[in-house]
Backbone:
């Protein structure tokens, strides 16, 4: 037991600070493009086609659903889904 | 029992160290009061104000100095995928100062005005730190990357057409807006936010030096 605690102690000390969650990341991206989200997004679905373009669909707490398109060359657009 | 108590004390001490790390670290180098702006408060300059440049030139060297250690104070756990994607950030290609092609005299003045660069300014390091920071997510970095690309396109267009000075002021306000966005997003990485804020004039001048 004591050995286990001694083993776990450095791990606890070395634990990094929590980074941004994907939900917050998506919500921030939506907000940056001028759309309202109202908090961390949920129901995030991510797809990538054969050409390397990525599409993310997410639901915001205010009920809006958005599609984030990231082209293979890094261009990002946010489109509200009606 | 005593050992367990000692262990708890050690854990408490380590958590205190974490709290100290989380708070905005004061750089070891001396920073004057004017050179320590809070990211959320800086005033937006809509045009390159000649008065502001000497202040930046004075303040930049001591503050940007810690930027030479990209790993320090910045989480290294950023995913390689995001690093690759954000690597396409066009700001990286800018730092090579090349002589400006045919530009109107007014534009030449505006380019020449912010030219004096701070010694410690390094756009590559700032870009790398922005890529590596865990304060903002992958998609947010991509969004900023897109904004930066648009801004560079606007500058290139301005350079090509050699349009009026008023147009440059517009582009400058867009640049200020983008800087403010990045600073607002970097609230979890205050040292990087501060370095970007202090180097904003140098970033702007290097943006104007981009070869069209």
Residues:
């Amino acid at each position: 037991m004591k050995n286990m605690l001694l083993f776990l102690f450095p791990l606890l000390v070395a634990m990094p600070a929590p980074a941004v969650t994907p939900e917050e990341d998506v919500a921030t991206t939506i907000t940056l493009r001028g759309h309202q989200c109202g908090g961390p997004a949920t129901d995030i679905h991510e797809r990538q086609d054969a050409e390397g373009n990525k599409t993310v669909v997410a639901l915001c707490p205010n009920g809006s659903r958005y599609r984030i398109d990231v082209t293979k060359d890094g261009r990002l657009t946010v489109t509200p889904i009606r | 029992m005593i050992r367990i108590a000692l262990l708890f004390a050690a854990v408490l001490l380590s958590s205190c160290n974490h709290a100290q790390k989380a708070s905005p670290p004061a750089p070891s180098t001396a920073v004057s009061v004017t050179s320590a702006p809070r990211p959320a408060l800086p005033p937006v300059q809509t045009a390159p104000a000649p008065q502001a440049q000497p202040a930046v030139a004075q303040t930049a060297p001591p503050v940007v100095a810690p930027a030479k250690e990209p790993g320090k104070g910045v989480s290294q756990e950023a995913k390689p995928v995001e690093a690759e994607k954000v690597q396409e950030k066009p700001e990286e290609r800018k730092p090579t100062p090349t002589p400006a092609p045919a530009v109107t005299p007014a534009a030449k003045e505006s380019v020449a005005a912010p030219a004096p660069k701070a010694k410690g300014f390094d756009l590559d390091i700032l870009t790398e730190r922005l890529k590596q920071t865990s304060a903002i997510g992958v998609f947010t970095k991509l969004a900023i990357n897109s904004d930066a690309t648009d801004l560079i396109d606007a500058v290139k267009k301005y350079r090509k057409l050699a349009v009026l000075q008023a147009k440059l002021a517009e582009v400058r306000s867009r640049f200020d807006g983008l800087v403010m966005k990045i600073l607002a997003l970097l609230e979890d990485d205050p040292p990087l936010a501060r370095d970007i804020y202090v180097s904003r004039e140098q970033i702007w001048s290097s943006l104007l030096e981009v070869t069209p």
Q: What stands out?
A: Chain B touches chain A through 31 residues (CB under 8 Å). DSSP finds nine helices and no strands in chain B. Residues 79-92+102-212 of chain B form one domain.
